[in-house]
UniProtKB/TrEMBL annotation:
The keyword NAD applies. This is NADH kinase pos5. SUPFAM superfamilies: NAD kinase/diacylglycerol kinase-like. The gene is POS5_2. Coiled coil: none annotated. Keywords: Kinase, NAD, NADP, Transferase. Residues 48-78 are annotated as: Disordered. Its EC number is 2.7.1.86. Pfam families: NAD_kinase, NAD_kinase_C.
Length: 396
């Protein structure tokens, strides 16, 4: 058995200060780093626990990849998961307290599980040892060591998980709310013990929320390196890809292509391409339609267009969209993915977007259905009418 790593320097000092504030005494604490774990061999990674489609007579072909299944299905684990990533909303007292209760339950009831946490979670909970801390440069290791993700917080916490797994496969995600409402939060924190046990043992209901694969290019067709590291699969985006004029005073001019056919020239504050999941986010605020998360579609929505006739275009999900800065544009446009600014695109530079082969598998409530109908009614008050106050009071 590997001896636990005892940290020195700023990381250990920060953890010790957190422990001292919580307990007034700061004994040495064994801290593990994710990067210290042995990297699984390719054959080991191929056999790690994954959710597979389930039929009453037994599991389907174990070689069937996760993304080849329908969007919503019942699934079982290929083998029991043993490594769980815990993600909490930072700087929130209620979420921090709830995470302490989650850690207490998991370490007591499931001592065999390896628990991975971010640095702020380790600092917030100094009483728990044998946690594996994910460093700021360990994102590439997460797919190798994570079998399932548990989140505490709002929809933004789920988007953070998508960002952590932005270069490939994302493990199943079990999302808990703290009482707030959200489109991505099927479970309340009070149901955590039962919901986690069901998710761990299966079968479970899973909704594969489509993501986008986004890649920026130079005018000469080469990858745009100044936008940062990007893999061959592109960045994985859960809600939307946005081109916006940002701080520049002029309207941006963007040429939109679908499968290399010129669709339109957009003269607007910006242009965004969203997933069905993202249809209730920025796209909705820009005047786009509401889409069911299981729809196989891409939503192209203008942001404050100059033309009053420019409306959202719903495109087939299997095509490729290219958004290119027009040579007539008077200023660059800011490229953002899921609200994170990446870089600026200049004349003739472009971003190519297609449906990703790596969706985000979100564990849903048992019994079928996604809760989407309930959510658009409770969160958006979809098509809720009103009663004229004078009529209600009996006035004519």
């Amino acid at each position: 058995m590997r001896a636990p790593l005892v940290l020195a320097g700023p990381v250990r000092a920060g953890l010790m200060r957190a422990a001292a504030s919580a307990r007034c005494v700061a004994p040495a604490r064994a801290i593990h780093l994710l990067r210290e774990l042995r990297v699984p061999a390719p054959w080991e990674n191929a056999k790690k626990p994954r959710l597979r489609p389930y039929v009453p007579d037994g599991p389907a072909d174990p070689d069937s990849p996760l993304h080849a299944s329908p969007a919503h299905r019942t699934s079982v684990w290929s083998s029991p998961p043993t490594s769980i990533l815990l993600i909490q909303k930072p700087n929130d007292e209620r979420t921090t307290k709830a995470m302490g209760e989650v850690l207490s339950h998991l370490t007591t009831t499931y001592p065999h599980l390896r628990l991975l946490v971010e640095a702020h979670t380790a600092r917030d909970h100094p009483d728990f040892e044998n946690l594996y801390v994910v460093g700021p440069h360990d994102a590439h290791l997460l797919p190798l060591h994570t079998h399932m993700v548990l989140t505490l917080g709002g929809d933004g916490t789920v988007l953070h998980v998508s960002h952590l797994f932005s270069e490939g496969e994302c493990p199943p995600v079990l999302c808990f709310s703290m009482g707030s409402l959200g489109f991505l939060l099927p479970f309340h924190i009070d149901s955590m013990p039962v919901a986690f046990e069901q998710a761990l043992n299966g079968p479970v209901s899973v909704l594969n929320r489509a993501r986008l694969a986004c890649t920026p290019y130079h005018a000469n067709g080469e990858l745009l390196e100044r936008c940062g590291d990007v893999s061959e699969e592109g960045w994985q985006v859960m809600n939307e890809v946005t081109l916006h004029r940002g701080r520049h005073p002029h309207l941006t001019i963007v040429d939109a292509f679908y499968d290399d056919q010129h669709l339109t020239e957009a003269v607007a504050d910006g242009l965004l391409l969203s997933t069905p999941t993202g249809s209730t986010a920025y796209s909705l605020s820009a005047g786009g339609p509401i889409s069911h998360p299981e729809a196989d579609a891409l939503l192209l929505t203008p942001i404050a267009p100059r033309s009053l006739s420019f409306r959202t275009v719903i495109l087939p999900g299997q095509g490729e969209v290219r958004l290119q800065i027009s040579p007539r544009a008077r200023s660059p446009a800011e490229l953002s993915i899921d609200g994170r600014e990446v870089c600026e695109l200049h004349k003739n530079e472009s971003v190519v977007i297609r449906k990703s082969e790596w969706p985000m598998p979100c564990i849903e409530r048992p019994g079928g259905g996604t809760g989407w109908v309930r959510d658009i009614s409770s969160l958006l008050h979809f098509n809720v009418g009103f009663v004229n106050k004078s009529i209600k009071k009996g006035h004519v």
